[in-house]
UniProtKB/TrEMBL annotation:
It holds the Pfam family DEAD_2. The keyword Nucleotide-binding applies. It is found in: Nucleus. SMART domains: DEXDc2, HELICc2. Residues 3-399 form the Helicase ATP-binding domain. Keywords: ATP-binding, Helicase, Hydrolase, Iron, Iron-sulfur, Isomerase, Metal-binding, Nucleotide-binding, Nucleus. The gene is DDX11_2. Belongs to the DEAD box helicase family. DEAH subfamily. DDX11/CHL1 sub-subfamily. This is DEAD H (Asp-Glu-Ala-Asp His) box helicase 11. It comes from Dermatophagoides pteronyssinus (European house dust mite). GO terms for molecular function: helicase activity. Its cofactor is [4Fe-4S] cluster.
Length: 831
């Protein structure tokens, strides 16, 4: 049956692509949870698109046929029952059948209406594209003073009542929610845009009259077009300001000009009629003067494919905010090699003592300023919030050493177990205290420049002063000014810290989750609490249990045991429901050679364990080895270090030893991975431009495993003829965080934590290596410098397509000969 499916692949598919599409289709159809490994360059994205689109198309046709046949069958049964002499039994059977017929007719009508809606939107597409907009986009001058100059008491005073719900997003809930929906998520917006652009290449977009309706979701940071809001460049501030504009009660103050319900509804239909990425939607939204954020959200119910970043899927409150319904749907997590770490990071929360101090200061001033204007309920919650934050801050100041506690133990130590945290969290959310405090601190900062009166001190301020005066520095008696921050920092801290506190308290009282609170004490007053999620399964539970099918796919998913131990086993997922698929690369065997370097040019054994890596002997040997290797590799060479610190250490030592000059003497231009994300594209462009400007140009790009250039970067063709990895990037096993994680996994399954530690390292290596081979005709050499890689390759720690091409020469001369021969053969073929 699977061999007869026509997936309408836009090109002649490889055999492994057909197998991958069959695996995905069967998973959708039978409700499997599948882990799929398909190396970069094997057409994974198009395979996913064609299989999910084919399945969705078949599903709708099958459901139409099924409902029609079942209705006809019930009608036939009614006719047969009329011949029955037992009148009472006949009536009962006919009533039951008629009820079932009515239910089936409703389902049939709903699906028929949905398909008709899709066809109608497709017809409108041409008309919509031809619409000319005469209205010019309104340019709002970015001036932060405009935001707060006209603040009145309605802006600043908490308007919160226990029986009032200020959330106005409930109008987006829609009873006509189309299921099963397909949710596709990936790590970055660029990867989501790539998926959407690949979708446009297929028949399902270009020639299908039913036109699968796809929408991309994102946060207000990417979707907000109101310059009065998006100039903050901070998610929490943007969210708060957006909600404030929607809830303005003063006649003098207008709501957001872009949240016009009619325009949003029309633009939501336009989003469904087209297939556009986030940037394209924002561009059109500015022309339509309609909010793209709410337009995309209002289009979710009728959509069939929803494209979104990880955090929307993995965070329950964010899912609920977007009204994402998982039941009976399909979830595809692409680039899932880092899913386990991503879940932990999304739910990891760190709060510093300086943030608590700043928040205490402004909360106290705020309460004092408007004490007589709060009702008793608001005052109660405000005092409780100050009390909890003060307890958190005081505990950090009094703690002497780093420690790790159970959340319940910390709650008891803080003496806050008698406070109803759930009510306090509701107060923080519904009172919009974060926004109020931000505006108050902004106003106070302006007033402080021209003070007209002195605000009386409070117990909290006296508490902060007392601890400040009790601290000393350098053994002197002078008071140390702790936790002081400037006004610019304060503005940022309050609005973010309130949200951090809310998330921290919410996690703190969730005792059903395997987690620890790491208390880190720092003499420089950067002490902190860090919430460590030990079991990602607790936050992936809804997805695995409610969805029809879940697909975890990536280029480097092996070994699969980590996903079994951390996701499936804790949730008792039936083995019959889990499927695993791994395919080799599409390149020929002669397109890649992976070489393990055990010895350097001077026959010094290379082992980058923590004890050896900084030795003068290893440092010099590594430098001379690289100089000798890169001589024989043309064009682009990317060298990965295990960490930023080790990269800095080696490059400095090589510079002192004159080794860096040897690279230049070999006509290799040097580029380095930048520290700022904003400079990554510039460095890549310069690196690419230099290599492509002449056939003789060659360059080295120094990068870090797990850094800015180890994922999502395309080093295809001449940009990555050589990929060199120095050492194994093992994390610090003695860190409290990693030790807690390893011990937790070892309790789940024997040796699971130790395996996780190694797999964490090797997935990062495999992902970095995969940057080079990007298509069938590409070729490169992979050089792994560390004697330990030989042992790992035997145990399949390297990706299969690399391990099968792995060689470990006995000396450096053989390494050199292998590289020379490899590129000589490629040069002959090219000529």
């Amino acid at each position: 049956m699977s061999d007869q499916r026509n997936y309408q692949f836009p090109y002649q598919p490889y055999d492994i692509q057909i197998k991958l599409m069959n695996q995905l289709y069967d998973s959708f159809e039978n409700g499997y949870i599948s882990i799929v490994e398909s190396p970069t360059g094997t057409g994974k994205s198009l395979s996913i698109i064609c299989s999910l689109a084919k399945w969705m198309e078949d599903y709708k046709l099958n459901q139409l046929q099924k409902y029609t046949e079942e209705i006809d069958e019930r009608k036939r049964q009614n006719q047969m029952n009329e011949k029955n002499d037992d009148w009472l039994a006949t009536q009962l059977k006919q009533m039951t059948n008629n009820n079932e017929i009515n239910d089936l007719n409703l389902k049939l009508e709903k699906l028929t209406k949905h398909i008709g809606y899709s066809k109608e939107l497709k017809k409108r597409r041409t008309k919509i594209q031809q619409r000319k907009m005469n209205q010019q986009s309104i340019q709002v001058k970015r001036n932060s003073n405009d935001v707060d100059d006209d603040l009145d008491l309605e802006d600043l005073i908490i308007q919160f009542d226990e029986d009032v719900n200020l959330n106005d997003d409930d109008d987006e809930k829609n009873s006509d929610y189309f299921l099963p929906k397909i949710y596709y998520c990936s790590r970055t917006h660029s990867q989501l845009s790539q998926f959407i652009n690949e979708f446009k290449k297929t028949r399902y977009y270009q020639h299908n009259p039913n036109s699968l309706m796809l929408i991309p979701l994102s946060s207000r940071v990417n979707y907000c077009i109101n310059q009065q809001v998006n100039h903050f460049n901070n998610l929490n501030m943007i969210n708060e300001k957006c909600n404030d504009l929607q809830q303005q009660k003063s006649k003098q103050k207008q709501k957001c000009q872009y949240k016009n319900q009619q325009k949003i509804l029309e633009f939501g239909q336009e989003i469904l009629a087209h297939v556009n990425d986030i940037e394209e939607i924002v561009t059109v939204a500015k022309q339509r003067q309609a909010c793209p954020y709410y337009s995309a959200r209002i289009a979710i119910p009728e959509s069939e494919i929803v494209v979104m970043p990880y955090n929307i899927l993995l965070h329950r409150s964010t899912r609920e905010n977007f009204n994402i319904q998982l039941k009976d749907s399909i979830v595809i997590v692409d680039e899932a090699h880092n899913l386990l770490e991503t879940i932990s990071n999304v739910h990891s929360i760190q709060i510093y003592s300086r943030q608590l101090s700043s928040l205490l200061k402004y909360l106290s001033l705020y309460m004092t300023k408007y004490l007589n204007r709060f009702n008793s309920l608001n005052l109660k919650y405000l005092k409780q919030l100050i009390f909890v934050i003060r307890k958190l801050y005081q505990y950090l100041l009094e703690a002497k050493t780093n420690t790790c506690l159970q959340p319940l133990d910390l709650t008891i130590k803080l003496n806050i177990e008698n406070i109803n945290i759930h009510e306090l969290l509701q107060f923080i959310e519904r009172s919009r205290i974060a926004s109020k405090l931000h505006m108050f601190s902004h106003q106070k900062s302006a007033n402080d420049k021209n003070p007209s009166k002195i605000m009386k001190s409070t117990g909290t301020l006296e508490f902060l002063k007392k601890f400040s005066n009790n601290q000393t520095s350098d053994g002197n008696d002078k008071p140390k000014q702790i936790e002081e921050s400037n006004d610019a920092d304060d503005e940022f801290l309050q609005i973010n810290t309130i949200h951090l506190i809310k998330d921290f308290l919410s996690s703190l009282i969730n005792y059903n989750v395997d987690a620890k609170i790491l208390i880190q004490i720092d003499n420089d007053n950067h002490s902190s609490y860090k919430y460590l999620l030990l079991s990602p399964s607790s936050h992936f539970k809804d997805i695995l249990q409610e969805c029809r099918s879940v697909i975890l796919c990536g280029g480097t998913m092996k070994p699969f045991n980590d996903y079994i131990n951390q996701l499936f086993r804790p949730l008792n997922i039936n083995d019959n429901r889990t499927k695993f698929f791994s395919c080799n690369h599409v390149i020929d065997d002669d397109k890649l050679i992976a070489i393990g370097c055990t010895y350097g040019p001077n026959n010094i054994r290379l082992n980058y364990s923590f004890q050896n890596r900084n030795s003068t002997e290893i440092v010099k040997e590594t430098g001379h080895l690289l100089v000798d290797i890169v001589k024989n590799i043309p064009k682009g060479i990317v060298i990965f270090f295990p960490s930023y610190d080790y990269q800095e250490f080696l490059l400095k030592r090589w510079s002192d030893e004159g080794i860096m000059k040897l690279f230049e003497q070999n006509q290799k231009r040097i580029f380095r991975e930048p520290k700022k994300n904003s400079q990554v594209q510039l460095i890549l462009n310069n690196y690419s431009k230099f290599i492509k400007s002449s056939t003789k140009n060659s360059a080295i790009l120094f990068s870090v495993i797990g850094g800015k250039m180890s994922e999502g970067i395309n080093f295809s063709d001449d940009l990555g003829r050589g990929i060199i990895v120095i050492g194994l990037p093992y994390a610090n096993r003695n860190s409290i965080e990693l030790m807690e994680k390893i011990n937790h996994l070892n309790r789940i399954a024997s040796n699971a934590g130790n395996e996780y530690y190694e797999n964490l390292c090797m997935r990062a290596v495999n992902q970095s290596i995969g940057r080079a081979i990007r298509h069938q005709n590409d070729y490169a050499t992979i050089i792994l410098i560390d004697e330990r890689y030989g042992k790992l390759s035997v145990n399949s720690k390297l990706s299969d397509w690399i391990r099968t091409r792995f060689r470990q020469p006995s000396n450096h001369s053989e390494v050199r000969l292998l590289i020379q021969k490899f590129f000589q053969n490629k040069q002959v073929k090219n000529d």
